[in-house]
Amino acid sequence: MEKFTFFYRSHSPFSQWYPSDFVVDGLAFNCAEQYMMFKKAQLFGDEEAARKIMLATTPREQKARGRSVRGFDQSLWDENCRQFVYDGNYAKFTQNPNLLKYLLKTKGTTLVEASPTDTIWGVGLAESDARINSRRSWRGTNWLGEILTNLREDILQKEELSS
């Protein structure tokens, strides 16, 4: 039977909003949400939005500025957003050893964003909802959980190869 590690809200190290400093291509980010929104602005060529996202200090503000990206195209976003989230979280976890320990402790489980309202990045169910214990009952795709699970497995595989 599949085992799950549920998470939700910014107090979880698995949240996009969890405070975590990391650097990618010489740019400093304060959370994975900022990276994701910055990459969104870059993808659509909105340099003004990208600059504002980098100046924003909270994930709420970063997300709001990401929602205002000009030239947004849903299909192009869908083709790219999961890779952006993977890359941002790779940097987040590999540059923060304490966060990496949390991620590696979930070995043997599938990470699940237990968001009752998010059916794209989460499963559309709260952790307290009994339906969350079966994939067949999920109302959402769990993209964030799947990305984090794959990231963990990739990191574990690299560790095995290097030892």
Highlighted features:
single chain, about 160 residues, mainly alpha, Tetracycline Repressor, domain 2, about 10% strand
How is this fold's topology laid out?
Layout: E1 4-7, E2 22-24, E3 27-29, H1 32-43, H2 47-55, H3 59-67, H4 74-94, H5 97-104, E4 110-113, H6 143-162
Parallel strand pairs: 1-4
Antiparallel strand pairs: 2-3
Helix pairs in contact: 1-2, 1-3, 1-4, 2-3, 4-6
Describe the structure.
Strand 2 and strand 3 (27-29) form a beta hairpin. This protein has six helices and four strands, in the order E-E-E-H-H-H-H-H-E-H. Helix 2 (47-55) packs antiparallel against helix 3 (59-67). It is mainly α. It has a single domain, classed as YbiA-like (Tetracycline Repressor, domain 2, Orthogonal Bundle), CATH 1.10.357. The chain starts with a strand and ends with a helix. 36% of the residues are buried. The chain has helices at residues 32-43, 47-55, 59-67, 74-94, 97-104, 143-162, and strands at 4-7, 22-24, 27-29, 110-113. The model has no long low-confidence stretch (mean pLDDT 97). The longest helix is centred in the middle third of the chain and has 21 residues, at 74-94. The chain is globular, with a radius of gyration of 16 Å. The strands form two sheets. Strands 1-4 form a two-stranded parallel sheet. It has a two-stranded antiparallel ribbon with strand order 2-3.
| CATH C-level name | Mainly Alpha
Element-by-element helix/strand order: EEEHHHHHEH
State the helix count: 6
- Detail the poorly predicted runs: none
Domains (count):
1
Classified in CATH, the superfamily is YbiA-like
- Proportion of helical residues: 40-55%
- Rg value: 16 Å
CATH architecture: Orthogonal Bundle
Let me know the number of strands. Answer: 4
State the major sheet: 2 strands, parallel
Shape: globular
Distance between the termini: 30 Å
Mean pLDDT, to the nearest integer, reads: 97
GO molecular function: hydrolase activity
Domain NADAR: 6-155
Catalytic activity: 2,5-diamino-6-hydroxy-4-(5-phosphoribosylamino)-pyrimidine + H2O = 2,5,6-triamino-4-hydroxypyrimidine + D-ribose 5-phosphate; 5-amino-6-(5-phospho-D-ribosylamino)uracil + H2O = 5,6-diaminouracil + D-ribose 5-phosphate
Keywords: Hydrolase
